[in-house]
Amino acid sequence: MNKRQVDLLINLSSSGKFIPAKDLADSFHVSTKTIYKDADTLLNTLKSTSLKLDVKRGLGIRIQGTISDRERVIRKFMDASEQETPVEEFCPRQRRIALVKEIILDGKQLTLKELSERWWISKTSILNDVDRINATIESASLQIRSNGSELIASGEEVNIQTAAATFIVNASDSRKAGDVTYFSLFFPEKVVQSVLTIFDPDKPWYVELPSYYKFALQVISLVQTQRACSGFHFTDQLQAIDTGSAEESARASETILNRIGQTLHLQFTTADKEWFARNLSAYRMSNDSVPADQSYKPVIDELIARMEDVQGMPFLNKAHLEKQLMYHIPAMILRLKQGLIVKNPLFKDIKTQYPALFGMTWYAISFLEERYQITLSDDEVSFITIYFHVAINQKIPIRRVLVIFNQHGQLRDYVMGQIKHLLPDGTLFLKTNFTAFQSIDLSDVGLIVGVNIPGLVSKVPFIRISPLFDANDQEKLLKAYASYLIRPQTSNEEQHYPVLSKLVNPNLIFWKDSVKDRKEALQFLIKVLENSGGVTDGFGKSLLRRERLGPTEIESGVALPHAAPETVKCLSVVFLMLNKPVKWNNTNVFVVILACVPNDSIAIYHDLVLDIYRLVENKTRVQMIVGLQDTEDLLDLINS
């Protein structure tokens, strides 16, 4: 027996009662078919013992026998299992990593039969793993496909490398640059060492990179190197890079790939170097003094104008906002065109504390998708949300981050550089030493960061970090920044919904006794709006694509799906009230609200979104809404 079957024996013996096969399958992360196959193995094995295995469809599986007999058999098989040659048995995450490594990275063709025998699981379980992988890499336009016996991933080199990098970034728990242990799950040691040597923390060009770029850039470098080691190269010449740092990136690409090639006795093609140069540009690996690409200025101006229309007010210090967006947007577009990934470490805090502003930013920036044929991501939009948050709150005194050092020299400059690149652009800093701290005016300081400072007595929030500024320090600083400098403004005003009350239509409020899942709920809403003629043919596709990119539900138990404004003809708000909640990612959702706002109604979007969030911002209010009896009750609540 393999380890899973021994564990199954222990599980069943401990209970002595019928356990449904579905519950066992969920517990062991396999299909029910695999559980029944394991039960057959146990049945044959237990024939020579005093225990009896019962398998009854509809009831489940149980082991009968006295407690002493069960304990004796368990000890016997546990001892035998420890002495046998271990079977290669992985949990689902490990299996999926192995599938991506062998099929996508290494270009192998694997049969379902050999994988089933290798991992002692059913072919159904393997195909379920493939489905999960394909959902993760969908944006890369590559899928692992089965012809009934083999698993294959074939496509253009750009899609293969993008798919591999996408999975590796998403499968990481920490997304920590230089994570040798994690990288070794996918790549040979010699490849990991040769690539990470290039990303030397002492190199000035590397120190200046934000930490969330470092990890992603290391991943795509490892993927390209491993593919080249396996004999896979880019062959088609790429279009010229349309960023101001093109020449600098091309020189860096030539230098870096030549060094890796010398170490691994590997020859990169000209097209390989062009692709890598594009990646360097996409991750802003260039000197800040390189002038911004002015061809993007009309796009930036349009984006700012759209957000001003949404907010119903002009931005102060617009030149500073334009400079920030000129720095970020061109690289973002290039990343998304290539399917590259950046994870924003502040994303969860932004989405939780500023859901309305996050939604408004999505609405304002959505025109870029059609214009540049890209698909926006939650992480990319959350970066832009930060810029707009700072611009909107210019009237509020900006609180600074005060950094206190207990040492001098090069390490001090290194830590200061790391802090600046970890926190959002626009953050204002002061720095001092411990001796001079008492003379600092703290009236506009929102957070004090002590580098190797034992402690501090101050009314201003204080955190201590080490001079090494490791992953724990980075996480601590980000949480403090989110808690003390990105806090939602609270209000005790009585709730009312002036815009929503004018738009709500009783014919677009639906009460459903049961909806099977999120997909069925969305399809229902799409059909309603298509039948009404209020949306274009592309509405459903846009709505479903947005759902795949990131969560649209909020913790109070409400889902707020939305589609690109270009796909909307008529201004409307649809309510779907569920008597039984459905799983929306990891949240039980009771209410679905779909706001459809076309571009020509952009001025109303801000107030409408705020009304909706005020209506459903906490669980108590949502439960009250769920308890309403009919449409008239809901209309009374909104109109009151």
From TrEMBL:
All residue ranges annotated as the PRD domain in the record: 291-398
A GO biological process held by the record: regulation of DNA-templated transcription
Pfam families tied to this protein: HTH_11, Mga, PRD, PTS_EIIA_2
Keywords: Activator, Repeat, Transcription, Transcription regulation
Domain PTS EIIA type-2 intervals: 502-640
Name of the protein in question: Transcriptional antiterminator
Biological source species: Sporolactobacillus terrae
